[in-house]
Write a structure and sequence with these properties.
Elements lengths: L5 E5 L5 E3 L9 E3 L2 E2 L14 H4 L8 E5 L2 H15 L3 E4 L10 H4 L1 H11 L4 E6 L8 H7 L3 E6 L5 H7 L6 H13 L3 E6 L9 H6 L5 E4 L2 H4 L5 H5 L2 H8 L9 H10 L7 E3 L1 H4 L2
Parallel strand pairs: 1-5, 3-6, 6-7, 7-8, 8-9, 9-10, 10-11
Antiparallel strand pairs: 2-3, 4-5
């Protein structure tokens, strides 16, 4: 299932933004697109100016940043002259959403990075398409980590909250492919959605560097207010799972994970994304 968004080609004036707020650990954030056709119901970006100023609903439009790689090369030179460059890709879009198959903006940016690797790159995605770029990620070696969102192990929960996002099984396969190719990869349970008691065991079958747990209250940049405005609570009520929409729900999952993973492997919220 996928949304049919309206795609617009744009020519951005700049690409590298200063890391701020939640991402202060990074010198820069990098978004190959504006908007995201995965259209996750709870996405905090829906409540940010980039989305609020659009008249169309979140997920129904995507801007493609044409010429991104050549602009990146110029900006990167300037940034690298000033000091260490650590990049979070992406903070307000998925760098591997469906249109990336065709237009390959993210791939072109990775190609540019292999010429002059940043000090560190974190790729945040929920798409198995990331494994297409294993050849480039291998060239970045220890300077890259892929963070794959796996909010739950229950496909029916995934469909309820994020009907347009890739199936969980496909993401787990991609994690395995990446890890087997020697790429550092973490599973990111963000936001914590209702999951089964078997979830930690399932993740433990994968060669993961870390497992990161995050929720709306710690992770949406506003103490949960952005998520609240998205009407997220109603989605829990529809399933009779309101207990999972609380400030403590993440602790339940974290305790289950502790039964399987070492404390060194577990990260919470901001530290899980740190370079």
């Amino acid at each position: 299932m996928s949304m049919k968004p309206v795609y617009t080609d744009t020519s951005p004036k700049s690409l590298l933004n200063k890391g701020s707020g939640y991402l202060t650990g990074y010198s820069h954030t990098l978004n190959p697109y504006v908007g995201c056709s995965f259209a996750c119901s709870y996405c905090y970006v829906k409540q940010m100016p980039v989305a609020l100023f659009r008249q169309a609903s979140w997920g129904s439009w995507v801007d493609i940043k044409r010429g991104a790689a050549s602009l990146f090369r110029k900006e990167y030179q300037r940034a690298a002259a000033k000091g260490a460059v650590t990049i979070f890709m992406s903070s307000s879009t998925d760098p591997y959403q469906p249109i990336e198959h065709k237009v390959q903006i993210t791939r072109s940016l990775l190609e540019a990075m292999t010429e002059q690797p940043p000090d560190f790159l974190l790729i945040q995605t929920r798409s198995p398409l990331v494994s297409r770029d294993i050849d480039l990620l291998q060239q970045l070696g220890s300077k890259v980590r892929v963070s794959m969102t796996v909010e739950t192990d229950l496909e029916e929960i995934r469909k309820h909250f994020t009907p347009y996002a890739p199936p969980i099984a496909a993401r787990l396969r991609a994690i395995r492919e990446l890890a087997e190719a020697g790429i550092a990869v973490q599973a990111t349970i963000a936001p914590v959605l209702p999951s089964s008691e078997r979830f930690p065991q399932l993740l433990n079958t994968l060669p993961l560097q870390h497992v990161c747990v995050d929720d709306y209250y710690m992770g949406d940049g506003s103490g949960g207010k952005r998520t609240e405005r998205n009407g997220t609570a109603a989605l829990y009520r529809e399933l009779g799972l309101e207990d999972w929409y609380s400030k403590d729900a993440w602790r339940l999952v974290y305790e289950r994970l502790r039964g399987v993973f070492s404390d060194e492997q577990l990260r919470v919220s901001q530290q899980g994304f740190a370079p």
